[in-house]
Amino acid sequence: MSGPVQLPTEPEPTRRRVEALIEALPWVERYAGRTIVVKYGGNAMIDDELKRAFADDIVFLRRCGIKVVVVHGGGPQITDMMNRLSIPFEFKAGRRVTTAQSIDIIRMVLVGQVGRELVNLINAHGPLAVGMSGEDAGLFLARPATVEVDGQDVDLGLVGEVAEVRPAAIQDLIAAGRIPIVAGVAADGQGTVYNINADTAAAALAMELRANRLVMLTDVEGLYLDWPQSTAIVPKISASQVEALLPGLTAGMRPKMEACLDAVRGGVHRATVTDGRVAHAVLLELFTDTGIGTMVTP
Question: What is the rounded distance in angstroms from the CA atom of residue 51 to the CA atom of residue 74?
């Protein structure tokens, strides 16, 4: 008499992939039809493998029925171009001081290089992405940024902030099934063009679009609990706790956490600072139970 039938065992890698899909399902259902704004920056935009992984993530979101908008910076590329052209530059309070000469370089790099490359990577999957800047269709109305250090106003030149968002062009693209790719430059009412911090631009756009989530890629794991004494990450933090921590944050992290704070207080359900050095960081944050990075809640 033959013994019990031995069913074939499922290979471990296959089982893990199936578990990942099952874990993602409720999150896909939650975000389908919702708007998610993603700020693209850091290593994710200079490492070729991470660039492709990011483009794949954005296409995946769109194919899941999510209305996704990308806002990008381009600090490393701007610095590289200015060095190549021997144009001096400096930073104050974590922001690049922008002169009349450098704004042309910034505009060229953000719109003509960084945005174009991401559009092409996404469009390798189909005619989905459309590149634009805050100037196009008057998406952003800019005003000079005001920054204070030790009680003194700091002159940053042509560095601006978003005074108003006019979302009609973005809404038209989303309705047509496209993925808007937005560069952080914008003009004021008199035609002067400003360099807009991509973190603050992403937050302003997320608020105006009534986005469900804001995800910001950076070059650290998240908000450190007690830096530099500890590398422990704060997984979740409230808006009031962020506000209390802001004065002690580093120049690089402060604008990101300020943007997250503004977003959740402006109606965005959740805002997360996520490690862009991790391949597929956007999917890991949105479609896994634990997520990665630091989530700011209202």
Answer: 13
169-214 pLDDT tens trace = 999 999 999 999 999 999 999 999 999 999 999 999 999 999 999 9
127-137 in b/e burial notation, b at 16+ Cβ within 10 A?
Answer: ebbbbbbbbbe
The DSSP code sequence of 178-228 is -EEEEESEEE-TTS-EEEE-HHHHHHHHHHHTT-SEEEEEESSSS-BSSTT
Q: Which residues of 62-79 are buried (b: 16+ CB within 10 A; e: fewer)?
A: bebebbbbbbbbbbebbe
Query: 272: which strand partners?
Result: 215, 295
Tell me how far apart the alpha carbons of residues 115 and 100 are, in angstroms, rounded to a whole number: 22
Report the share of the chain in percent with pLDDT over 70.
Answer: 95
Please tell me the distance from the alpha carbon of residue 218 to that of residue 256, in angstroms, as a whole number: 9
Q: How far apart are CA 279 and CA 202, in angstroms?
A: 21
For 81, the enclosing helix (H) or strand (E) is helix 75-84
Q: What is the mean pLDDT of the chain?
A: 91
Nearest residue to 199 via CA among 95, 86, 66? 95
pLDDT tens string 88-99: 988 887 788 999
Give Cβ neighbours of residue 73 (< 8 Å, ≥ 6 apart): 39, 40, 41, 45, 110, 114, 184, 197, 198, 199
Residue 92: the pLDDT is: 82
